[in-house]
Each structure stands twice: as structure tokens, then as C-alpha cells.
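Moderator note: this is an archived Q&A kept for reference. The question asked for a predicted structure of one protein chain; the sequence and the answer are reproduced below.
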Amino acid sequence: MPRALAVLLLGAALLAAPLVWGRTPMTETTSRIHAQFVLKDAAGRSLLDAGGPLTADTVAAYRVPPERLAEARRRLEALGLRVEAAGGGVLSASGERKLFAKLFGAVPEPPAGGEALRLEVPAALDDIVAAVLLPPPPELFTEPTP
């Protein structure tokens, strides 16, 4: 079999594979939800209380100490969430849609290109989490320039 024909057949198989498996890449709604948890410091303040733009001068006032960050991480993981990143006063965590529904009630899809959706903070996290935000999905372009 000529090499070009083999490459062509392999390419066709790779393109058809998602259809055979009953799903399409990039359009399937995922069962995993990613959220941002804005944390409170020991005094109950968060980045959301800044009341204006954060600058190098003002951001230090809202820094969450490492032990508080570690406590928030432990509590989110105890609820079944997977903490993926932590920094400043925000934790990024994910979990299955069913788990989010159990913790936060019905979880709608954020609108594409819109603002982040804010979920109700459960009572079990109210003392350490100021807000739970679902960022909008990324915009993917098929052309090199938008």
C-alpha cells in the first residue's frame, strides 16, 4: 500500500472515530465542572471586597495566609472536589456535575462569551469561601484571527 494512501486512511479513521463512539470532540457537554472559589481571610474579607481595581499596593490587604489556603483546600477535597490550582485568594477546583448539583443545587451552563455565573455558597463553606464562580467556556476559533 502506498504511504500516501495509508496516511489518508489513518486520517479518515481518526476523523470518523468520534462519530463511531457516539460523541464529537469540542461540542460534547462535559460532566465535569470547573469552578473558582474566592476565599475569605481570617477577618472575613475577600478580593471581592476591594471595591475597585486591584493594584500591587492594594492586593496585599486581601492576601489569604497559606494556612487558610490549606484549610480551604482540605475542606473542598473532603467534599469530593479536586483542587487543581491555588494562588492568592482563589482556589480552582473541579468535580462531577452530579456532585456540584448536590453541593450547589442546579448548575446551569455559563453563557458563551458572557460573565461568570455565581453559585450560592453552601453553609458548610460560608466561613471560608466568599464566592463560587463558574467561568464562561473558552471561545475557540477555526480561523487564525478572530
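Archived answer notes: The chain has a mean pLDDT of 78.
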